[in-house]
Amino acid sequence: MKSRKSTIKRSTQETSITVSVNLDGTGKTDIKTGINFLDHLIVSFGKHSLMDLKVVAKTNDNIEHHLIEDTAITIGQAIDKALDSRKGITRFGNAAVPMDESIAEASIDLVKRPFSKLTLSIKRNKIEDMSKEDLEHFFISLLQNLNSCIHLTVKYGENDHHKVEAAIKSLAVALRRAVSLDSKQKGIPSTKGSM
Can you give the residue ranges of every domain in the chain? Predict the structure, then answer.
């Protein structure tokens, strides 16, 4: 089986991002974005998806929005590249993950037709060191660049921190299931013969 690893470098006047991913890892992460809560979310994403993930993100214009957006884009593109033709994968994955009083559900189809539906239900304007709109934009940018069909919904909850953590963990677990190799699957998991 071909190695399912990739490295993507994204360099613009706004940011310099390098992401390395190993889909068949153990959840080992090394994350450096300079934004504490963003680091925490990406560490959780790697840990619960069981993919090894290294992220080095630097701002060139000191605008956090650009750093958050470009980090999400690059992570999504690195995972998409590591999936290659998507031969032999399970393709579909779903998970419901609770975090205390909150629960989130994620459903994924790794078909190469991007669609995403996101409902985080965040009430506060800021969670830790990230604004509500930047948190939402991180998730949207990540989902769009995974080149997949993904529905991610916080079903209910009171604590916004818990809602966001449940969301990233449910996404990670659903992705872990979808990227897993199916020994019964011969070739591309589609009646079309391609994704």
Answer: 5-179
- Report pLDDT digits (tens) over 74-132: 999 999 999 998 999 999 999 999 999 999 999 999 999 999 999 999 999 999 999 99
pLDDT 10s digits, 151-165: 999 999 999 999 999
**Interatomic CA distance for residues 3 and 107, integer angstroms:** 25
* CA angle, 121 then 166 then 77, to 5°: 90
First to last CA, the chain: 19
Please name every residue paired with 151 in a beta bridge, in sequence order, or none if there are none: 107, 117
Distance of alpha carbon 171 from alpha carbon 163, whole angstroms: 12
CA atoms of 193 and 153, how far apart (whole Å): 31
CATH homologous superfamily of 5-179: Imidazole glycerol phosphate dehydratase; domain 1 (3.30.230.40)
- pTM higher than 0.85 for the full model? yes
Of the candidates 150, 152, 145, the residue with the CA atom closest to the CA atom of residue 115: 150
The Cα-based distances of 140 to 73, 192, 195 in angstroms read 9, 28, 22
Determine the residue type at 160: D
